[in-house]
Design a protein that fits this description.
The complex is a heterotrimer. By secondary structure, chain A is an alpha/beta fold. Chain A contains 14 helices and eleven strands. Chain A folds into two domains: 34-138 and 263-316, Periplasmic binding protein-like II (D-Maltodextrin-Binding Protein, domain 2, 3-Layer(aba) Sandwich), CATH 3.40.190; 139-261 and 321-354, 3-Layer(aba) Sandwich (D-Maltodextrin-Binding Protein, domain 2). In chain A, strand 1, helix 2 (48-58) and strand 2 form a beta-alpha-beta unit. By secondary structure, chain C is mainly α. In chain C, 72% of the residues lie in helices and 0% in strands. In chain C, helix 4 (52-84) packs across helix 10 and helix 9 (167-175) packs across helix 10. Chain C is globular, with a radius of gyration of 23 Å. The chains are: A alpha/beta, B mainly alpha, C mainly alpha.
Chain lengths: 357, 266, 274
């Protein structure tokens, strides 16, 4: 008993020490007080030195919280209890949040440099007139191949993945919308199809390639491709750029017949309080120099055309991540579909995953 | 004893298996690259990054504070809970309580996280350290019960009867008989609870807020961007620290009990 | 007489049961009767029991949880037994727990590196002239990594069980001429069964709802109920269906508890004061 009580005491003392140190650290970083900005972002999705620069320049302290899924972030904001001033949902989630009345419209009069953004990236169907959102990064869905195993140029279109010679060679990203979308585009259909019969047809088409599928994985697909585990993968451009940076044998193609165009966007959730800080931050991030610096750190494609001009030649002219006009014109943005249809997409994809081999 | 040589070999293999991925991780923390794929030259760079990242250090401190405190409280509540379960006589009641006990273990984290979130917002509990602490205590209690209960079951009834016959009060029985006997179970429970707390990300994500963040949540959130080797460096530091703590603690304790048990022990 | 006196000690536990177990469980149960548009329905249960997909997933969950538990037990029991006879056994035990404090996702990534085609293990096998094998995305790799994660949770209770074993009984059995195997099956195993039981529970129950490793290491070749719940809560946001699967999991666990629970409690009842 005495021994147990001694242990309890020791643990409590350690806790006290940890708490005090953590508190001091928080204070030294300038937390507390009212000059703050609560930013909810994906992990490691902003250059920390830019955050520091913003804090120094504006005097606001940035509280950074991270999330790893649009839907989980949505749930939290919907339930309340959070105090986010800014968050970074993907495009279909912007639409969903708008419909759920979770967003505050942007006050354009307080935003500077909106014409830095390219026309391809503004006024999209998910947020007409950019009433609620400002694009942060954008990208595509495409094919990654490893030139150790696949001859450059031999895989350029979705249908190439159905080739029998790629048996057990393809890694797919674990996302119903994207993989079903790939099936739909290969049938020359829209990625926003809501007709059940067409979706069934796309699933049947996918089943025909299931022998080629090595695995259906998520973020870890980067680790696999960097390690030369598979010759081919279907994944987003953002992930692709990370892999390419690590393994020079990897290349990325966006099929010119059509693919997905995605965006991550700044939005103001209705829980926001610190409007001055929000607009100061948005304007800070819109400045071409800062946006370019951030794009170099994150490695994704920036919608800020003025910033793109500042990037190194090898980056800004890279067809893999800034595709040419023909391809751009065939890209399709996901619509936020009726939940029932989302269910159909997911059930079909689940069946595809379950009964593969 | 020749037989034990094989036994030692077996243990060595188990330890190699347990530590292989850890050494792999820590090894890469010295790689001059950005990711855990190809080892490219030796560097301490990632350790430098780590120690210049006050946000990350704060997250680590908060994570440890949370894990220790929640495990402590869960161990106390769970141990008494196990005693209560052990005392019920009817098998139906017992099995029912045990089933209830295990519900949080069988439910996937997202379900627990989402229902706790609804629960906390309904009760107006502010999201932050407190809500996370309560949730961690909640999902750690069942494992404590599972670790303490078998020990209680083995408690010889004769010992309790003897104590009572000698006129011990309930508190004395608890202090002098029950607690010493179940101490190993309590320790296991505490360690397992601590582990559960360190590992959890889904529940924590749902119920946290106001800038409180744990290491697991941060690591999962970084997966989309690729986990940088700074995290490997952090694991290396934490691992070394834990190792020193464990070994140091053991030898201090060893010294104490050697003094105490001079006449008894083997 | 002792029954009521220490009630205060149990209040926190009962409170916990009420607030954090029963309340959320009722919430899950309630949610399982709503479809995605928020209308009351029994449809989720109908879907579950009529769809071959969900039944197959249920089978997968139970089967793989069983395999993981069996492999974990097979590795852990001898380890715990040998540990018992070691010098500084408490230290070794702590060292077995230590790896669990490193983040699970990181360890999984390390295994991807180790088991990869270009990975450490294949390079090692290459030294003996064995051509690179496809190790990842196999059942064996998945079960191995899952067992790896669970081993400390199994060793700890078994070790505690063996610790309280009366050494005299084993010596007696030996002296009476029993073979080591007989001693094990007739004396050691029956007397350590309660530790084994709590280890099996600590491993089997969470394994039923495993989801991350099935994807990371298994490449989604095997889909379990945990994966489906994850998807319903985080992708389709169909919480009704997700809750339904959750209810099924809970019911499955309760059935297992009652099947393995002590019905013979009354037999050894006299030992505790009723």
């Amino acid at each position: 008993m005495k021994k147990l009580i001694a242990y309890v005491a020791v643990i409590l003392v350690i806790c006290l020490g940890l708490g005090a140190t953590s508190h001091q650290l928080a204070a030294s970083q300038g937390a507390g007080g009212d000059k703050v900005l609560n930013l909810a972002n994906w992990g490691d999705y902003i250059d920390p030195s830019l955050v520091k620069q913003f804090e120094k320049e504006s005097g606001y302290h940035v509280n950074l919280e991270t999330f790893d899924s649009n839907e989980a972030m949505f749930t939290k904001i919907k339930q309340g209890g959070t105090h986010y001033d800014l968050t970074v949902p993907s495009e279909y989630m912007v639409e969903k949040m708008t419909k759920a009345h979770l967003l505050v419209p942007l006050d354009k009069s307080k935003l500077h440099g909106l014409n830095n953004y390219g026309h391809y990236f503004m006024n999209k169907s998910f947020d007409p007139g950019n009433k609620y959102s400002l694009p942060y990064f954008w990208g595509t869905l495409g094919i990654i191949y490893n030139d150790k195993f696949v001859k450059p140029g031999s895989v350029a279109h979705w249908n190439d993945l159905w080739n029998k010679k790629y048996k057990g060679s393809i890694m797919l990203i674990d996302s119903a919308r994207d993989i079903m979308g790939m099936g739909l585009v290969s049938l020359d259909k829209s990625m926003n199809t809501t007709d059940t019969a067409t979706l069934e047809a796309a699933k049947a088409k996918l089943d025909a390639m299931s022998g080629n599928v090595k695995a259906v994985v998520a973020d870890e697909i980067k680790m696999y491709m960097e390690n030369n585990e598979a010759p081919l993968a279907v994944d987003w451009s953002g992930e692709a750029s990370e892999m390419l940076a690590e393994n020079s044998h990897l290349h990325y193609v966006v099929p010119s017949e059509g693919s997905n165009l995605w965006f991550d966007n700044f939005v103001i959730p209705r829980t926001a309080k610190h409007y001055k800080a929000i607009y100061a931050f948005l304007n800070f991030m819109t400045r071409p120099k800062n946006a370019a610096k951030n794009a170099e750190y994150v490695g994704y494609a920036t919608p800020n055309d003025a910033a793109r001009k500042l990037l190194p030649k090898s980056v800004k002219n890279d067809k893999q991540f800034y595709p040419d006009k023909t391809t751009m014109d065939h890209l399709e943005v996901y619509k936020d579909l009726n939940p029932r249809i989302v269910g159909v997409y997911n059930d079909l994809f689940l069946e595809f995953k379950m009964y593969r081999r | 004893m020749r037989k034990f040589k094989w036994g030692h070999l077996y243990l060595v293999l188990v330890f190699i298996m347990l530590y292989l991925p850890i050494f792999y991780l820590v090894g890469y923390s010295f790689s001059d690259g950005e990711r855990m794929s190809h080892f490219t030259g030796f560097t301490f760079r990632h350790y430098g990054e780590l120690f210049n990242d006050p946000r990350m250090i704060q997250i680590v401190l908060d994570t440890l504070l949370l894990a220790l405190l929640s495990a402590l409280i869960a161990t106390i509540v769970g141990s008494f809970g196990a005693m209560a379960i052990n005392r019920t006589v009817k098998p139906v009641v017992r099995n029912t309580v045990l089933s209830l006990n295990n519900i949080l273990m069988v439910s996937p984290d997202v379900i627990i996280g989402a229902s706790f979130l609804i629960f906390f917002t309904a009760l107006n509990v502010p999201l932050g350290f407190l809500s996370v602490l309560l949730s961690h205590i909640a999902f750690e209690i069942p494992i404590v019960v599972l670790m303490v209960l078998p020990r209680l079951k083995e408690l010889p009834g004769t010992m309790l009867d003897a104590a009572q016959d000698l006129g011990a009060t309930n508190f004395q029985v608890l202090r002098d008989v029950i607690l010493p006997f179940i101490t190993p179970g309590i320790f296991s429970g505490f360690f397992m609870a601590f582990t559960y707390s360190l590992d959890d990300f889904a529940v924590t994500f749902f119920v946290t807020g106001n800038g409180f963040q744990t290491l697991a949540v941060e690591i999962y959130a970084r997966a989309r961007q690729g986990i940088s080797l700074e995290i490997n460096a952090l694991s290396g530091v934490m691992f070394l620290f834990a190792l020193l703590l464990v070994v140091g603690y053991y030898f201090i304790q060893q010294g104490q009990s050697a003094r105490k048990q001079k006449k008894g022990g083997r | 007489m002792r029954k009521n006196s220490n009630v205060a000690f149990y209040v926190p536990y009962v409170l916990w049961l009420a607030l954090f177990v029963i309340a959320p469980m009722l919430l899950i149960f309630y949610q399982s009767f709503f479809d995605i548009n928020g209308h009351f329905t029994l449809g989720n249960y109908v879907t579950y029991f009529q769809s071959g997909t969900y039944l197959a997933m249920t089978f997968n969950s139970v089967w793989y949880a069983f395999l993981i538990t069996a492999v974990t037990l097979l590795i852990s029991y001898p380890a715990a037994y040998i540990l018992h006879y070691m010098k500084h056994k408490q230290l070794w035990l702590l060292l077995i727990i230590l790896p669990t404090w490193i983040n699970l996702l990181l360890k999984a990534y390390a295994f991807i590196g180790i088991f990869g085609r270009d990975g450490g293990l294949n390079n090692f096998l290459g030294l003996f002239g064995i051509v690179p094998q496809q190790l990842l995305f196999t059942d064996a790799a998945f079960i191995f990594v899952a067992a790896y994660i669970e081993i400390p949770f199994m060793i700890l209770p078994i070790f505690n069980g063996i610790e309280e074993l009366d050494e005299g009984l084993i010596n007696a059995s030996r002296d009476l001429g029993a073979s080591p195997w007989q001693t094990f099956t007739k004396v050691t195993w029956p007397l350590t069964i309660s530790g084994v039981k709590s280890g099996v529970q600590a491993v089997f129950i969470p394994s039923l709802s495993l989801f991350m490793l099935t994807r990371l290491i298994g490449g989604n070749r095997v889909i379990t109920l945990g994966t489906a719940i994850e998807e319903h809560f985080l992708t389709t946001m169909n919480w009704g269906m997700g809750s339904t699967i959750g209810v099924v999991l809970i019911v499955a666990m309760v059935i297992i508890m009652f099947l393995t629970g002590e019905r013979n409690k009354l037999k050894k009842g006299g030992k505790h004061h009723a």
